[in-house]
Structure formats: structure tokens, C-alpha cells
């Protein structure tokens, strides 16, 4: 598995944790569950930002992906930015294959 794919999956997983946290908070469910999801999201988001920063320094990701990750959108922003980059890579690969 490539670094790009691993961080892409991690970003989607972090988005799922964040979504569960928001649903738990809005729904007024267990405060203990909210706390556990909040801690998981907090540390997970920091780890995601570090993983993306490492990827940017290695030129795996363009720097705007990190900007999206540290924006108020958090894991939603990083997931959207990574999916846009994945789409661009598929387009470039298709252009190269059609030119050959």
C-alpha cells in the first residue's frame, strides 16, 4: 500500500470518527461516548495533520491538502482535498495512457 493510499484511508477513518462525534453530540447521547470520541478525534486529527505534513514534505501531497486539513473543516477538508488529488492523478494517468 502506498503512503498516499494509507493517509487517504486514515483521513476517511478520521472523518467517520468526527461524524460519530457530531451525531453523538447533536443527539445528546452519552457524555462518556462523546468524551471518548472527542479524545479519539482530537489525537487522530493531530496524527492526520502530521501524516499529511510528512507527505507534503516528501511531495506525496501538494501543500493545499495540509491547508485543508488544518482548516475548520478538519477531517472533512482533508478528505475532500485528498479525493480531489486522487481524481487529478487518475486524470493525469489517463492522459498519459491515451497519449502512448
Describe the structure.
The protein is an all-alpha fold and 100 residues long. The protein has one domain (3-99). 84% of the residues lie in helices and 0% in strands. It has 4 helices and no strands. It is elongated, with a radius of gyration of 16 Å. The two termini are 26 Å apart.
The biggest beta sheet reads: none
Into which percentage range does the β-strand content fall? under 5%
Mean pLDDT: 94
Give the helix level as a range of percent: over 70%
Structural class: mainly alpha
The assembly state of the depicted protein chains is single chain
User: How many separate helices?
Assistant: 4
Q: What is the domain total for the residues? A: 1
Total beta strands:
0
Radius of gyration: 16 Å
| Cα end-to-end separation | 26 Å
Spans of at least 5 consecutive residues whose pLDDT stays below 50 are none
Structure, briefly:
The protein has 100 residues and is mostly helical. It has one domain (3-99). It contains four helices and no strands.
